Amino acid sequence: EKIAALHPPTCPSLIREGICHGYCKESVCKKNEDPLSICTTPSSVWLEKITTEPLTGIDVDNICESIGTKENFVRAFFQLKHYHEYEDALFFDPFDFEHFEKRLDENCELLARIVYLKHEIPFLGYSSVKLPKKINDSRLLEYRTMSYSTIYDQVPIQAIFNIVAPMLEQKFHQASYGYRWNADASDHYRIFQDWKEAYPRFRKSVMAALSQNPNGFHVCCDIKGFYDHIRHDILFEELRKYNLDQHVCREIERIVGAYTLSTEKNCGLPQGPAFARLLANLYLNDFDYFVSEMSVAYFRYVDDFVIVFKKKNEAVEGLEKVARRLEKLGLVLSEDEEKAAYIELNSETTHVTKTLDKIHYGVLECTRRMDYLAPSAVKDFSQAVERHSISPVTLEQIVKINDYLPSLLYIATRRSISKYIPTEKVIGIIEFLIKHKWFYPKRLKTIFYRILDMQPDEDHLRKLFRLLEPAHKVYFILSVFGCWRTQNEHQELLKNLTLDSLKEEDTHVLGFAIAIADKLEIKIEVNSEYIEKINSQSKDYFCMLKWLSNLDYLNETDHERDRIRGMIKTSGPALIKNYLFTNIRKFPSTYLDSLFLRRLLQNGCILLIPAACSLLANATDKSELFNELMKFCLSRFEYKSLVVSLINKRIHVRIEGANQLEIENLKCLFGEVEDEDIKVSILNAVDRYAHISRLDFAKNHKLIKSYNGCLFFEALDKSGEYDYIELIPEEIIRGNFKGDLDSFKNILYDFAEKAIIPKVEVSYCIKEKLAEVKYKTGEHLKVLCSSNFIFSQDNPESIRGAFKLSAELFRKSLYFLRHTGRIPYIKIGYIMVDEYNSTAVFRAVGKSLCSSHVIEGATFGNEETDISKMISLLLESLVFKERRVFDAFAKSRPYSGLNAFLVLFIQRMRFKDPSRRYSCSRFCYLVEQLFRKDEPYHMDNWEATIYLRERLKGALSRLSPKMITWYGICAALNDHLSDHLFTVCGNNALYNYPFRNRLFLLGRGSGSLHMLSKYLLELALSREDISDKDEMDTAYLDLLELLLLYALVCIEIASIARVQQSKDVRHNLLSLLEKQNDIRIVAGDTAKDFKSIDIASLFIGLPENSEYEIISRLSLRLLSLKALFALCEVIVGENSIEIKKPKKMSEIVYCRLAYVCLVQIPDCESGIEAMLKDVLLALRNNEDFSRLQLDKMRNIVDTLPYDLMKAKRSVRYLRYYGQADGKMFPPIIRCKRAALCGSMLVKERT
């Protein structure tokens, strides 16, 4: 009852009321004492936050009100930018996004109003892109038709589905895994769930279902040409079942119906736009429910699905039902040899594994660890390249080379191993494929960057470009443009490729060449041939948009303007006219041009409103065009408030640099406007200017900056009541503070009290309709700039100061965001720092009151992840001044501990995946660790130790995201020893360190360990050497030793578990599992119960004739059981499995082995999981973890080598073989029978 009265019960309120006696943790106390942090609750401290965002507050009957908000459209823009730039979609068009972004607020406000008022959304249509897909039996390229649409078309439909998609998702079947809508509130910019999480869930679910039904049957299916054969009538019928607003349904139907690139009428969804993927799932939703009800298990990933049945006759009958159901949907199953539906036993998984591998399109994910390969393995790889450089003679070879090409290029461009790869051979392979029209690799957004890194000969690259398919030329020239724009490289090559592309006939190659030519300031001669070429491409308007995007119509010659008037028709698309109007900044001087522009307005296209308002604001005289523009803007009463706002913003920009005569002319011109609202708005803007132009004001103030309709002045008299004054128009305040001027004043006073901004006084001028915000900075606050503050990577105290400053700004930015919905503008020149205590404040608030910010070419929205990226750019500009200086510094490993953190912060906080950027709490915790007074942080190795400790914790969390696994632990250790350690210690750290060999003292079978196990054990035993040399963080050393010893156990157990079981044993075990009861495993005096599904998982998923087995999905407990099966005889009983002692194994060795595999290893795994859960909990709560108990793990490692050596010797498993494949850690190492009994030879290849 006491707690209920305090709802919601925060920790401070519970303590204040005496319900809690104090804070449970020091970190919780610290967080609640921070005035910028949100108070914690018991739930937030002890429970993990659910990532899903529930659907609330949406009225289905008034859904257009929810869709038609400016914030929703801004979010849609940034979602699409992230989707096209980073995810598996068509090429990213930077010029299209740039054009929309120039007027982001205006465009989003207009489009939102169109939807809100239920007017028809302007839609230009789709442009087809023929992308090479595969080689057919005749060795000819086949193409996939992708669909390009401009961002002006995509933003409205994305904004609609931001609201509609959660409604659809609620009824989607859980068996569908591909492209499910993202409901994670912490990752606003991701449209779909991350495939790196969705695909593993799909694969794991499929294999688990096969394990649960080991004696059943399954069938893998692929829908032929899925997207192209989706019937619109059936899709729209499915959509109407959700009772959405009729206008919303009509708009979706109209935009889908505009797709006409399919070979069948009224069929097909465009491949490329994000919304099509959601509608594809909707189309098969009823099918998902149908198949799930008639089968044991069912799983679908887009157009691929797996169905599990109990019996073969059920599978045959079920497959027929599936075909008939798909036929009703206008779909058929694929009949290709590789994709055809086959009914197989669940224990035979060759085909399903191939299907799952085919779906896994993230090719580069499999090669990230290859820079840690041993030289021998890399040489093997290079020999494979040599073999592939020979002309392929079979279709299979051509397909295989294209599949391997992204991985091949990735490996060849890695600095650590590139010396082993014959790059000229790789380029030769690519050139061979291109010349024969056999080039169709995946990962096109990255593959040409790799080619640019490998091939310095730009003439050769230009020749390759000329041979490419048109779609590949687009990806190539965009990659070169990206290198030039971000790194200032390949400018000459880009210029030559652009000149070549201007001669192309393909609309997309030509269009991008036109856009790039403008960036390079290449003058294009606009002759009749050029105009005719663009006009001939007007069917999809791509070239014309790129041409018009930077064309100022009135600056062209008379002859060129005449040609343009002939190209752009009055009845043409609204977007074409909008592009033309956008760049017109003055009124025409000839009647013919004026008449042309007036005619373009006659159709009343709403999309032209922002451009028309902008042109009106630049008027100097009343003319027929002026009257026509005014008439056009006021022709729709529903848009009047938007028109008034847009004109007012433009007038404000214009009068900033105007003289008194121009101001008077403006008053006379708009004073005669009949519309009272526009007249009053303009006159208010002029009065505002008069306010700042008063003799006394102008005399005592200096204009510093103008932005967002606001003006920022410096007071020349520093002895006055304020040092700076900011004038913020009322419409800016009402657009950002929910229309409440009192809230605005209270928030600013709160900001000043918490030192987010300087001391402030707020007043409001009713006549001018603006707020005066007066800032008192005093003598100690200085503007953050290079002349006032110097930061250097060579000065440790300077770097610490930059970290502390950044952490403080991060916390204050987050507080600013929570109270205004906007992120502050974090950039040098807009921040002030107290030169005595280094406290930072934002110089003013007006600059932050907008939908987006642009800093160094990067655009930021209003999410916490955008703050993280801004902090990254701030750190870089504080310490390095220029991007190229940082890039050079980042390549100069190893670093000192502080510099390692500096590089980590800058790179990690601008990571392309926003979900992987550091949060405010995590960043502040790491910075705080570098300032701890109770530790010797002044010592060189302290920062390095903190770096290693936190990177190791982060790797454990990243590689075991859902649950702790032995494979995730080993992979994290691999990252740590192969990357993190080298970052602060150098590549030869482990070789040069003066370790003492302690392995020979251990004895008891350690000599029979695999070489990799010996290395790990030697490192673990050398902890004393590290501790003797310097003071180190004991908790970190505990964690590192624990992982080293655990990895040793994993390697040794896994090497035995990889030994293949005989077919008879497997068959007997699978037959036992029909009862699905718990199975009792008996080995000597030791017995243990296992679930039948666990036993099945040891064998399901293993191809019959596979040499290697993927064991990463098994727990260590099951691996040890499989190792026991491999070393002993297996007798299958009624409800049990008896493990018999091999003839040549002694009773003592046998009992000891049974105890190790059935008791000791499972207990070890449980203990490790418990300890690491505490470590990961500390990571999540940004706390230190306590020292770990290592005695049990040390005892296991002390006896395990001896026990396993005796057992392996008894059954003649005395040799190792295998290799490091770069994909798995531990590597694929397996035991093999020795040729002679008693041989102790150990042959290694790691």
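the 2nd protein, sequnce then structure:
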Amino acid sequence: MPILLESIDTAAAQINTVAEAGKARTIKAVTPKFFSSSLTGQGKKQGVLNSTVVPGFYPMGLSRATMGSTDIRYKERRTSNNVTSHIIPIGTVVRRAYEQGYGYMKVPVPSEANAFSVRLTNDTDDFDLYASCHVQGLVMREDRSGREMVKDLAVSYRTMLYVVPPVKDEDAIDLEAQMDTLCDQDLASCDIDDPEFIDASDEDIMALDDESVDSLVLTVDDDYRTRATLLNMSASNFRSLSALMNIQEQAWAIVDWSYAPVEDSIDLPWDAICYAMGIDPSRQNEFRDTLNQFYADYSVYENITYSAGRWTSNGIAEDIRDVVAALVPKTRTYNDDQLAQMVYQLRYMEQYSVPLPAYREVYTAINTLCDPQTASRLMKQNMNLLMNETLHELGSHRDELERAPQSMATTPIQGQLSPQQKAAVCSTEPLSITQAGAGAGKSTVILARINQLTLCGVNPSDITVLSFTNAAADNIIKKNPNVRSMTIARMIHDLYMTYFPTHELSSVETIANSLGIYMPGDAFALQFAQRLRRLEGRDAQGAYTSLNNFIEAHLEQTVDALNLIKQTSLELEIILAYQMIDRMPLPSGLNIRHLIIDEVQDNSVFEFIYLLRLVSKLKASLFIVGDASQTLYEFRSANPKALNALEASGVFTPYKLETNYRSNQEVLDMANVHLLSEIEANQLAQIRLRANSLVPVTARSFQDKVHVVHEHYTSDAKFIGDLPKLLSQHTYTYVQDCLSRGEQVAFLAFTRREAFAVQKRLEEMFPGRSVISMISDRRRASTFFSAFIKMYWSDIEAVDPANAAYVFAKEIIARGPVTNAQAQQALAKMASEWWTESGSAIQGWVYEYQSAIITKETFFDRLKKCILDYEIRYNSIRDALMHRNNEERKIRNMETQADLIVSTVHGVKGLEFDNVVVIYKDQSDMSEEKKRLYYVAFTRAKNSLFVLSHGTTLSARILSDYNLIVDSLTQPDSTDTEDEDTATTVTVVDEDDVPSEDDTPCADATDTDGFAATRALVASIQTVPGLSATDDEDDA
């Protein structure tokens, strides 16, 4: 049985007092690193964002006129002249949304308890005047032009002033009347003859009074004091309009953006505010003094923390609902600018991680507040909203979809399956999702599902299985020759090629260059190329959404452009397949009635949406298997929220597989407690892995099979430099013991650099053992040829055709990456191979030109096409060779049963090893992506796990988790003698204490700070809902 979280809580309680345990129950907070880890610094280095940053004044020589108040709308990085600028949006609502909402947008009036607002008036004033300040965005500059890098930070603030009218007299009268009425009703309901009446306690009476007050609050509290209408303080009628709002006793507000709110506070319309409130204008000095004191005590860091929390809660849904209600409600006419800004606001949401419940609330708000046509248009502006819309549409047709035969439940299953697996395999639901934890037998379930369908009379040709890798697809076909099996990319490519047979797969950059070459000066081609390039940018959030909407608005132009250049890419294929789903026929022989998808978590959000639409169109059944906690390919646009959306939709019937058939329970306990309970993607599925074993876990067995060593390092570079020594010091004995048992050891690293360092050291440490690498080769597409044509083709056209090819080959090398010798050498080889392949054809065109058979223009058109075609073929061939070599090497290495294996975690997904060493970086603010990656790494181990950790703290969380598990397994009445051999020990070493490679490994040192870290961990474990002990036999 797995370690129960309740047991861990008990163990923690044994080592802490009740008071200490209570202090430890803290809620995990989101920090400014949510936006950028560069802000707050690393290790002992203080970042540019710290407790000393407060709203202030402009730097010397600058002012509002010179700095402006830029609308920070994009998360991006720009570099020019050795100066890199990081632009980081912070606010949940963009500036232009506020500006387009003037006169319509209602903003919440802050309370006096709000840390980021202040009351400027006093109790003697009829009207209340509040001010609030929030960080709207940041611009961080890194200047590397000098000997040392210099950082500076500019903070953009959003300051708002709120004028709130007094409580209306009639409300005060109504309040008194309601209190009298409620009291009369309460007394009338009392029966003095009731024997329980005399026994009524003071608490009962107080509860009655509280209920009465609650009712009063609900009936009296109108929004004229809690919601303020946003006015444009720059409008010519602002003075009269604000006065009118006060006469009508309605709250109103103004907003100002500034990099120096203290200095710019003098520019706020204080005269108009005082006039509207009916008070002496001289009091504005008093208001400004109070405001400036508020700024002096203000914490920029805390406000950014607040904003990060709002992004990751339903708070952002409340903000977006206000924007929808102001800009595009169905109750009034709105203009194109307001609709365009609403579109951008929804795309803006994709820059950061917004929780699914918030997206569902935004989806509901749009459908409630907007007319159907506008709502449909808005849903397409954000992938998560489009997913909600697609799921809603699919759910409405659920009863029309194909179902598995009813005999699935009664037909005997061939082979051994657990009750959980059997329930999933025999499902007759048209839409089902199997949430399968690591090692839970996903492949077994899929193969059994195929077999059960065919046993119940389904034609194998009606079954299509989509896998994430070619190897997995080939395995399905090998065992089921009549079933169609392929990757999703292959299916979409085959479908696309039936409609566009002349297009060739190319790189995004080559396509963008080609658009500029074949359509120079064309506005559409320029916009198309810009959106394509965003797909490969570092800050490409929302790029798919933007490209999809652009193509939808210019579908025929897009098709014409691609037909002209005769190119496509995998990214364009999926978008066009989605946009043309009703026009593109299925490839010949592909008859989808029962669709099965494996490893569904690694599909992109857009692939999810397309497949859901395809299922709806074909009325097919859909059976999907995956684990959101194992999503690894976010850099390929995979997103665990896509699978989470399906899990939470209610459209799919869920099944869950928690029994792990790979690892022992000791390994799973470490994965469960340290990672799985913390992974956000698991909060819906609530998977807790259990080994397929009844062998009890003890403190001794856990310490024998799970080992943790933590090294204190303030620099990643220093750690990697010392990694060879650390491997010798800490892992040599462990590896020797494993090898002596005839078992394999895999070393899994986070980065390729770490993996290469490990491989080199293992070959030195174990010269008589076989060490193989499973690190995949990778390459970037070569776009030198198309880039050269785009920029310098006019120079080539100026020479005689007889010399054009020679001049091209010479010039492209001369203008190549001269500072990169390896890239320059590759370019020279590419140019040489191009001439070898194309020289005879070019000479033939020269002869035709000299013989006046073709014109000079025709010759250069042919030459240009020849160069571009070669670049496309060059990239395509090398990509195919690289993928084939990677697959073959992976298969070959696994078949050799090498003693030692080295890989990145991505390279071993779906594999398992006897023993695993994980190179691990412990971080207090570890990203969700890293948590999922390390979870996959931990669960590759069958027999034992060794974690070589490093981080900036001595008392790392992984150590406290390890100690907690051991403590929970250590019972006072244990028959084992708790001597030095079984005491909780982990190794903690400072980077300055790392011995040389020849030194004898030092003895383990007990973590003196482990209990403090343990107490801090209790809260995070206890606050995870649903993770409790069960007696369900299916989980045994």
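The first strand starts at residue 76 and ends at 80. Residues 658 and 689 are 5 Å apart (CA to CA).
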